[in-house]
Amino acid sequence: METTGGCHCGAVRYTAQGEPLQRTNCHCGNCRRVSGAQAVAWITVPVTALTWVRGEPVRYRTDTQAARTFCGVCGTPLTYQNDGRPEQVDITVGSLDNPEAFAPTQGFYVDERLSWVPLVTEVR
Predict the structure, then answer these.
(1) Which residues constitute the domain of residue 105?
(2) Is 121 inside any structural domain?
(3) Which neighbouring-strand residues pair with 14?
(4) Which of 80, 86, 110, 116 could be stapled to 90 by a disulfide with Cβ–Cβ 3.0 to 4.6 Å?
(5) How big is the chain by its Cα radius of gyration, in Å?
(6) Could you read off the pLDDT of 69-87 as tens digits, one per residue?
(7) 34 near 93, Cβ under 8 Å?
(8) Nearest to 87 by CA among 124, 48, 115, 116
(9) Integer distance in angstroms from the first to the last C-alpha of the chain?
(10) pTM above 0.70, yes or no
(11) Predicted confidence (pLDDT) per residue in 3-43, tens digit
(12) Total domains in the fold of the chain
């Protein structure tokens, strides 16, 4: 299986090979601030499965032992990689060409969830 995606303006494009290891909806305050959204949906893949095919994203090192990437032209958030899981990378579902195919099956940091945001309750 090949999954494709990229930023809003098209300056950065990627492919990811294989089935995602997990599909999550993150409610943490960091994800909310970085994305400007109430939560961020992610797929997780092995680092070796992700290939940048056009452009290079800008890398931002956080104070939470992680690195986030985004398009340096339009600002689209693209990936998240935590030092505790160096062999995995999370890709924003919103940057996928076919996000409908990757509904989250679990929530992360649900204790930080905004009260008006529903939780994923069924596993698909």
Answers:
(1) 2-7+21-112
(2) no
(3) 5, 52
(4) 80
(5) 14
(6) 999 999 999 999 999 999 9
(7) no
(8) 48
(9) 18
(10) yes
(11) 999 999 999 999 999 999 999 999 999 999 989 999 999 99
(12) 1
